[in-house]
Amino acid sequence: MNPVNYLYLAALLFTIGAAGVLIRRNAIVVFMCVELMLNACNLAFVTFSRMHGNLDGQIIAFFTMVVAAAEVVVGLAIIVSVFRARHSASVDDASLMKL
Amino acid sequence: MENLIALLVGAPLLGAAVLLCGGRRLDKSGHWLGTLLAAVSFFIGLALFADMLGKGAEDRAMHQRLFTWISVDGFQADIAFQLDQLSMTFVLLITGVGTLIHVYSIGYMEHDERRRRFFGYLNLFVAAMLLLVLADNFLLLYFGWEGVGLASYLLIGFWQHKPTAATAAKKAFLVNRVGDMGLSIAIMLMFTTFGTFAFGPVFAATDEASEGKLTAIGLMLLLAACGKSAQVPLQSWLGDAMEGPTPVSALIHAATMVTAGVYLIVRSADIFNAAPDAQLVVTVVGAVTLLFGAIVGCAKDDIKKALAGSTMSQIGYMILAAGLGPIGYAFAIMHLVTHGFFKAGLFLGAGSVMHGMNDEVDMRRYGGLRKYMPVTFATFGLGYLAIIGFPGLSGFFSKDKIIEAAFAKGGTEGWILGSVTLLGAAITAYYMTRVMLMTFFGEKRWQPDAEGHAPHPHESPKSMTIPMVLLAFGSVFAGAFFGIGDRFVAWLEPVTNFEHGHPPISAGAITGATVAVMVIGVGIAYLQYGRRPVPVVAPRGSLLTRAARRDLLQDDFNHAVFVTGGTHLTRSLVYVDHTLVDGVVNGTAASVGGLSGRLRKLQNGYARTYAVSMFGGTAVLIAATLLMRAV
């Protein structure tokens, strides 16, 4: 199978994730979309690794997973504390970043 | 001998310093000290004059350099004096007439409790004027020039408790400032043109400068002269300056102040000789002023203001003569000196009349005073004969020469200037006869003053009459002494040069015409004021008379043009400031504010909005990178 197809899939997943981040209001769903984008990147890395015949891309994919795991910990903690404070997981309710 | 020059200025300056700083303990002796120091200056002047006469005509100029005033790279100003024949003439006039006026003031100001201060100011005036005529560079001359302005301000406003006197002093000062501006611009132009403002180097370099620059310098010098010498268009201060005590008027009109402008022009002869256009303007200013002053003099009922108009007119003669070039310089100075004698005499006489008449100045309330004040009458009468140019007296010799020189200018200009001077001579005879008849002849028209004191005219004390007698001698004999054998011209020739003018008609005919117009002027005045009784209340008079009573509307003109014009100008500037300048500033602020208000709305606090901008920015960056690669 042509590895380029994997790249198309990665682009599709990334687009879905990006659209979800921009459109969805629920913080959990936004968060999952971020994960989707990260994994789309991982897929692209692995595909490039295979295409070029070296391991650099796969190694970077591991790094991405480590960072994503750390991000999940911090991100979920923030979401939980926001939910406790505001009784809502909607990102629109937390529009505090303005003058 | 050169070392004495500084003492000429130093003596009266010392007097001014001592009298003004000395305090009340000098109240009893201050006037003697002031008079003594003025006299010291006069005698030093006489000694220098005798020394000068002992030398050959070409080596008479003396120089004394005291110290360097300002010294920076490329610019040096010295406190240095130059005493040549022209300065010498002025020194003797200023100190001689000045001393007589000091003596006169002892009596005139006897009852004034601020007499010490008055003498301090008089000394300051004399010192400043001496500095002006003795300076050897234009910057020091400017210093003296400003000193004269200051002293005149202090003296005109001496009776500062009278609002009119305070206003008159301010007016004189302000109008003079306009002229001073001309002098400072002229000095700056000289510095940029010649790189110096010392007399010698500047006058030596006039050949190398362009005529345009010399004309500009000449016109600026003329503006300065107009201010100090009360020439049109800066003449308006002179009439009001009569608010000062009468000795001040005599000093301003005879020895100091108004003569400064004539001095400046004659001193700058080399500049004017090389700038014929400027010279023409000088003659025009002189001609206009000589008629202007004469017409004003005809209408005034205030004896001092009539004499003030006369001064303006006579200075006009001098300025006109100075504008004629080498054919006129010497005669301008000669008329200045003879005028110094008779005008000082006339003013002191007027002061003597006022002294005897409870300070009344309205000539319509005089009349028949010749019996009560015989000395004043005799001296005033001789001054009168001198100023109208009665044959044999001072004014005859000097004025006649100016009229001849005016005709000798040549061409149409010569005829016009000559006719104007002749007409001026006729009007002079008219208004002076009017003053004479209204004051000393006719029946008594005295009236009690505001407090009910009827005047008891009496002759003034000796300290006042002796200066008048001495000045009357000068009025009678000075002209003949100077004029016969061209003695004065020969004396000044090394400084101002001299060319014989050649009038288109014979000199004898001009003299005859001068005498004839004088007789006509006297005759008309006699018919109007000698044959008929003088009404105590001034008749309404013709349009011209009424205009002349208001100084030919000079103040109305100044008000309409400069005051109203200035008000409108500032108003429009304020309008421009409020609309345009403030508009730009406030508009910029408002647009920045408005724009930020709109941009602020982008910060709505929604995380996804920020995410959009991040994604958008990234997309643009990637697109740009790809595009650049493709290209």
TrEMBL record, chain A:
Keywords: Cell membrane, Membrane, NAD, Oxidoreductase, Quinone, Translocase, Transmembrane, Transmembrane helix, Transport, Ubiquinone. GO terms for molecular function: NADH dehydrogenase (quinone) (non-electrogenic) activity; quinone binding. The keyword Kinase does not apply. Its EC number is 7.1.1.-. It is a multi-pass membrane protein. The keyword Repeat does not apply. One of its GO terms (biological process) is ATP synthesis coupled electron transport. Coiled coil: none annotated. It is an enzyme of class 7 (translocase). It is found in: Cell membrane; Membrane. GO terms for cellular component: NADH dehydrogenase complex; plasma membrane. The chain crosses the membrane at residues 6-23, 28-48, 60-83. Belongs to the complex I subunit 4L family. NDH-1 is composed of 14 different subunits. Subunits NuoA, H, J, K, L, M, N constitute the membrane sector of the complex. This is NADH-quinone oxidoreductase subunit K. It comes from Streptomyces viridochromogenes.
From TrEMBL, chain B:
Keywords: Membrane, Transmembrane, Transmembrane helix, Ubiquinone. Its main location: membrane. Residues 69-119 form the NADH-Ubiquinone oxidoreductase (complex I) chain 5 N-terminal domain. One of its GO terms (molecular function) is NADH dehydrogenase activity. InterPro entries: NADHpl_OxRdtase_5_subgr, ND/Mrp_TM, NU5C-like, Proton_antipo_N. GO terms for cellular component: endomembrane system; membrane. It is found in: Endomembrane system; Membrane. GO terms for biological process: ATP synthesis coupled electron transport; electron transport coupled proton transport. Pfam families: Proton_antipo_M, Proton_antipo_N. The chain crosses the membrane at residues 31-54, 89-109, 121-145, 183-204, 216-234, 246-266, 278-297, 317-337, 372-394, 414-432, 466-485, 505-527, 609-628. It is a multi-pass membrane protein. Residues 135-421 form the NADH:quinone oxidoreductase/Mrp antiporter transmembrane domain. This is NADH:ubiquinone oxidoreductase subunit L. It comes from Streptomyces viridochromogenes.
